[in-house]
Amino acid sequence: MRTVRRLFYRDIGASVGFVAVAFLSLFFFIDFVDDLDQIGRQGRAAWHVALAVLYAVPGHLYDLLPIAVLIGSIYALARMAQASEYTILRTGGLGPGRALKLLALLGLGFGALNFVVGDFVTPSAEQAALQLAARFDGERRIEGAGAWLKGHRLAPDGAHSLSINIASIDRSGLLQGVRAFEFDDRGRLRAQASARTAQVDRQGRWLLREVHVTTWPTAADAPDASASGPATPRVSDVDLPELGFASDLDASVVAAAVLPLSSMTTIELWRYGRHLDEQAQASQQVAIRFWKKALYPLSCLVMVALALPFAYLHARTAGVSLKVFGGIMLGIGFVLLNNLAGHLGMLRGWTPWVVAAAPSLLFLLLSLAAFAWLVRYR
Q: Which tens digits make up the pLDDT trace of 7-50?
């Protein structure tokens, strides 16, 4: 059994590695050609563009590894079937259950590799790419109306709610174009602050610089009424060099709001989704992204299960090239279904974990049904 395991893992591992390298080389070339017009802009050289494209390679590997596992496994198993090696292994006692177990262990290994790439390598590469872009562009504008954050801070008269808008981030990581709106427990606007730059630490302490503050006091804050009539509170405007306050919006929440979701780990997505739920904000997109990221490594297990039926097809049924083409079509279908399920889940408000698990479960059932039919009737 050890010899059979070594044969399976060596052939399939080499085939998957070859397919992955081929895919990554193709995507690197396409991305580099697409970014050639960046050379010379803001002092960028050709090697800067190549480095930026290189930072995108871990993300491509994370997305393409299940497809590479499918195509590489189909190629290795189809080649074994064509050379009658798999027939000899079956004659020697390699039953369907053992073959499925061997490939399941291999699929779990590829899944663990995909998890490491997606949760550790890709986020670091994404952040490095953002820092490289900020080095030349000076700042990174946030799409749309900027990033909006919702939180709370303690005030003398109770908990106040905060709504903070961030327009951009400069090359040093400072938040720029920050606007903060503070509401009391009755929903009345109490203060508005506009700052040129801002910083926030891990404890949720904010420091705003070059701030213009507008305050709307309530009737209770007004001076005592005079004989001439009741006093009315006055709106005050003041410019301050610095303004600090404490809130429940710490650096991790801010980073999750201003950085792309692809740069976040599974744990960070879960924490950010919980924060959105606590603040009664829309969290469907983040929840679906979390479950897709959590379950995506298991798709490697589905892919090797989907490749196993190709080993039971007779060599004269189809050549290796036709089987590989079929694997490519299956891989494209899985990617399309995975993306389509995510978009439909957000539009329809479906349960996030069901949306993330449905494509993999469908392909797993398809592979097991094909495997059982081939074993029984072929």
A: 889 999 999 999 999 999 999 999 999 999 998 888 889 999 99
Using DSSP, state whether 214 is helix, strand or coil.
strand
Spell out the alpha helix ranges (H) of 138-178: none
Asked if 123 contacts 263 with a C-beta cutoff of 8 angstroms, the reply is yes
Give the Cα-Cα-Cα angle 340, 346, 351 (nearest 5 degrees).
Answer: 100
Report the DSSP beta bridge partners of residue 199: 207
Question: What tokens were used for 98?
Answer: 């053992």
Nearest CA among 50, 225, 21, 236 for reference residue 129: 50
Domain boundaries, the chain: 2-138+284-377, 147-259
225 dihedral zone (left: phi>0; alpha: psi -120 to 50; beta): beta
DSSP string covering 226-251, please? BTTB------EEEEEEEEEEE-S--H
CA angle 100, 22, 264 (to 5 degrees): 80
Tokens encoding 139: 């700042």
Write the CA distances from 33 to 96, 133, 169, 234, 363, integer angstroms. Answer: 46, 17, 28, 60, 35
Give the pLDDT score at 318. 56
d(CA 51, CA 129): 8
pTM of the model: 0.84
For residue 111, pLDDT beyond 80: yes
Give the residue among 218, 220, 256, 254 at the shortest CA–CA distance from 236: 218
Asked if pLDDT for residue 214 goes beyond 90, the answer is yes
142 close to 255: Cβ distance less than 8 angstroms: no
Beta bridge partners of 209: 197, 242
Residues 69-84 have pLDDT tens digits of 999 999 999 888 888 8
Cβ 216 vs Cβ 191: under 8 Å: yes
Percent of the chain residues topping a pLDDT of 70? 94
